[in-house]
Write the structure tokens for this entry.
Amino acid sequence: MPSKKGEVPGREGINLFRIAGIQITIDFSWFIIFILILWSLSVGYFPKEFPGQNALAYWFAGLIATLLFFLSVVIHELSHSLMAIRLGMKINEITLFIFGGISKLSEEARTPQDEFKIAVVGPLSSFALAIVFRGAAGALTALQFSFMAAVFSYLSWINVALGVFNLIPGFPLDGGRVLRAFLWWKTGSIARATKWTSDIGKGFAVALMVIGTFQIFSGRLLGGIWMIFIGMFLRWVAEGGYQEVLIRQALEGVSVREVMVTQMVSVSPEMKVSDLISSFFLKYGYTGYPVMENDEILGVVSLSQVKDLTDEEKENRKVREIMTALSKEICVGPEDSLADALKKMIQQNMSRLLVLDKNQVVGLITKTGLFRFIEIKRLFEG
Ligand SMILES: [Zn+2]
């Protein structure tokens, strides 16, 4: 089973900025691509295409081109997110990876039509950017800034390439999503549509890796490594996407009540953190506890809030000071579906939620419990 679904992939990145309520994050892998592109433009492409300038001019042009390429990828990804938001979905975050971006959709499109619209705007925005950069290149040529014009025509070309690459009909690429929307609409089954298109995606990924290997043997080391990287990444996301759909389906028809834990061990808000560790974490082995005072629920405290404290803090701090206070975000209702519960866990980055019924805690639902349930269900229902 997938280790961390919904968190494609669950690595930390650097938060850049927020736009329209969406956090733009760069994965560390992006620095590799940044330096690679900057270097290959400043030392390779521009000097070859446009000889006779000094090194500083090439690096300057390379830097502008790399930054605008980066901006192009952000705009491509934003177009997906903005369309999704328009269609009533929630997008929290876009993470930029080694060769592009992934919008962290905390939910799937509800209909094939929505899926189609969200997918198709990506390549369209890349093509639109290509036209804009082409126009800019034309204007710069007319103004006799021919070196800068070369930079912009490169950007125009790279956006066409980005658009075309994304149109390849294998999931998770945009073209694969368009095809998935079509098959979903035809067959009525998102699971089957995802299976087929992610198989195509994986096939394409393997082809990239094979071609990359041949390139390496024929002396084109850098290009070959690129292709193998992209292939590995695509394969991984294609597989994850399919698993995610299966899990979502398994969770859709089951209520929280059926899976929640009702026998809970709760802790007092006035307890010292060191006591919480010795008398609860080490004793019961659960990774989180509801915090209660006179039968009233105040919040939850979990291992992640404790593990980085110093010995002194553990001795001086109380549970009340470190817990996550009660809010709508950490609660679900007993009749909500498991799919809703999981969505909330992903959105809040929590591994457990309180189950509230008329302001009374009636249980606790954990990510581990949820996945155990899927595993068991799979075992008995094939
Ligand atoms: Zn896209």
Q: What stands out?
A: The two ends are 14 Å apart (CA to CA). The chain has two domains: 2-167, 256-380. DSSP finds 14 helices and ten strands in the chain. The beta strands are 14-19, 22-26, 91-97, 100-105, 288-293, 296-302, 324-325, 331-332, 352-357, 360-366.
